[in-house]
Amino acid sequence: MKNLWNHKEALRSGNSLLRQRIYTSRLLGMNPDLVLHGGGNTSVKIKEKNIFGEEEDILYVKGSGADLATIDEPGFSPVRLNVLMKLSELDHLSDTDMVKYERTAMTNPDSPAPSIEAIVHALIPFTFVDHTHADAIVTVTNTKNGLQRIKEIYGDRVLIIPYVMPGFLLAKEIYRQCRNFDWNKIEGMILMNHGVFTFHDTAKGSYDLMIKLVTEAELFLKKNNAAVKGIAKKTEPNPGEIAGIRRKMRDLTGKSFFVISDASGECVAFSGHPQVKELSQRGTLTPDHVIRIKPFPACISSQSEKDIERFAGEYMDYFDKFNNGSLTPLDSAPRWAIIQGKGLLFFGKTVREAEIVRDICLHNIRSMQQGEMLGGYLPLSRKDLFAIEYWELEQAKLRKNISTKSMSGRIALVTGAASGIGKACVEKLLLEGAAVSALDINPSVLSIFSQKEVLAHKCDVDDFRAVGTAIKSTVMHFGGLDMVVSNAGIFTESCLIEEMNLSAWNQSMRLNLGSHMNLLKTCIPFLSKGIDPAVVIIASKNVPAPGPGVSAYSVAKAGLTQLARVAALELGKKGIRVNVVHPNAVFDTGAWNEKILSERARHYKMSVEEYQTNNILKTAVNSSDVSEVVFSLLSRSFAKTTGAQIPVDGGNERVI
After folding, report:
1. Residues 6 or more apart in contact with residue 237 via CB below 8 angstroms
2. What is the DSSP letter of 580?
3. pLDDT at residue number 593
């Protein structure tokens, strides 16, 4: 455990106790072996004057939901210390009431709710208090004879608290044990199966003690040969199987999930562990992890979709066993799955959520194996985990992150995504909650989108092998494929038929027709396992209303439209909708620039503005207008429509 304290950086905090608290909180948050994704909490006690000029003792404690890695002043909740101390003296207090009364004691009502362990921080009589869920320490506690092992490592230098559910019960237990306790005799406090507290009157002192205690646990694991050594050769799960699992989860729960697959050596090694089925079912590393990853994973063998059904049944058995009759079950979908011998899958309703699940699970599988090497991995019982999973305070945290966007959980692929209509479609789908695989021959596509919900590919759609690779990568990265916007193409130079260059003709047929056919053909196996699957093909006004000199372009687009019509007929039995959009005069695409626009306007004896609005509605049409129509066709608004052709042209007399 490396000590990250830097004297020069620490000096920048000055004399402000809160700034010093922020500095060391971030040091803790930088290390995922200490805290993960909002875990842990820190505090500092500061004397401040109120509006009446009276001096008060204020506990600045990490606010609920804040992340130690990035925390700043607004992430801390200022609570009057005397109120917290009085609350600790009560015989009974529900956690809901505890939160309510803590909020009434805050000096800034705009701050987040205080950490559920605020009273514990108040009870510890030091200026700075740090609390983490350090992997090494919790791993040692999560073993047979864990208590004896903790005593072996630390002797009487730490206070050991048997597991008590976080919240008021934990605060009351610490109050009971420590009313006449000499805190100066110890270096920290270890909560069995939960985590560790350190404390000091300086920020550095408390941080140093945390690093020291965790390092001792790490050295103990190393000394006892409890190190994860299993690294297997990488494998490649079947993308069709992953898409099928995702669809089965939707069928069971009515919810759409993203799926991250990990076939790294570490994950494959764990998935091939001789006792992986039994070991993985015992429980999570720390109780707060159950909120993110449920108490156990799904184990998948040869019949993956039936295994997901089996998990759902086992989860409901677990719920029924511990339900007191007043609870409503959460969804019965797993949050991670073991594909035996092939790696792990991680599920989330957003890409970010799936990534968090992966991070937490990687720490869990290491702890499981270390604990087993140390005599047997023995975490909290399912009854204790259930109490946390269905704890109202924890559920409230997750409800804050529920997305109501219409495309949440859905996965799209867009070609020609680096500019114009394709780029606008990517941006619209992202805005509505989808994840998007963005393809373009232009390498700028790799840098245009910074969101983790975008998987960018430099891909020539005329290269059938490259298209297949991009589609497979999409499924492996996000878990499936639900929507396709087939947009890429070129606008060939005007040319009369009698002067036609066969090379230009063939190029238009390949890119404006053949590449779309290949894309559609390659996507169908995954779309057939998709969620509300739909395809939108970008054709052209030139299909219903062609003009002279553009036969290469018009004929290819007409063939593309016919392809879409046949596809609508063939794919309807698979539930896949196929519709066509016919844009016209969309001037913010790569086919237009100021020079071409001026030339065309002069040709028609118009100003540029008149040329741009030369339609029945006298309105300019841009890429975002087309993307709105594309989005609507992909959405549930057009769930009963297939084979349609929609113009987006401001109204064209020849089309009408």
Report:
1. 261, 263, 339, 342, 343, 345, 476
2. E
3. 77
Quote the pTM value: 0.91
- If DSSP codes are grouped into helix, strand and coil, which group holds residue 218? helix
DSSP track, 428-454: HHHHTT-EEEEEESSTTHHHH---TTE
Q: Dihedral sign, CA of 195, 199, 203, 208?
A: negative
What are 238-295's pLDDT values in tens digits?
899 999 999 999 999 999 999 999 999 899 999 999 999 999 999 999 999 999 999 9
Query: With DSSP H G I counted as helix, E B as strand and the rest as coil, what are the percentages for the chain, rounded to 5?
Result: 45, 15, 40
Reading the block at residue 145, the tokens are 């004879």
Can you tell me the distance from the alpha carbon of 616 to that of 639, in angstroms, rounded to the nearest whole number? 29
Q: Per DSSP, what are the bridge partners of residue 160? A: 190
Instruction: Please determine whether the domains at 239-399 and 411-591+624-648 fall in the same fold group of CATH.
Output: no
Q: What's residue 397's pLDDT?
A: 56
E strands within 251-396?
Answer: 258-262, 298-300, 336-339, 343-348
User: Is the separation of the CB atoms in 541 and 582 below 8 Å?
Assistant: yes
Architecture of domain 411-591+624-648: 3-Layer(aba) Sandwich (3.40)
CATH of domain 239-399: 3.40.225.10
In the structure encoding, which two tokens stand for residue 324, read together? Answer: 């007191």
State whether CATH 3.40.225.10 applies to domain 7-223: yes
Could you say which residues of the chain have pLDDT below 50?
Answer: none
**Going edge to edge, which strands form the sheet with 577-583?**
454-458, 435-440, 411-415, 483-486, 534-538, 577-583, 645-648
What are the strands of the beta sheet with 55-62, ordered from one edge? 76-80, 55-62, 41-49, 128-132, 195-200, 188-191, 158-161
Q: What does the domain layout of the chain look like in residue ranges? A: 7-223, 239-399, 411-591+624-648
pLDDT for the residue numbered 398: 53
Q: Are 155 and 106 in contact (CB under 8 A)?
A: no
Q: Residues 26, 69: contact at Cβ < 8 Å?
A: yes
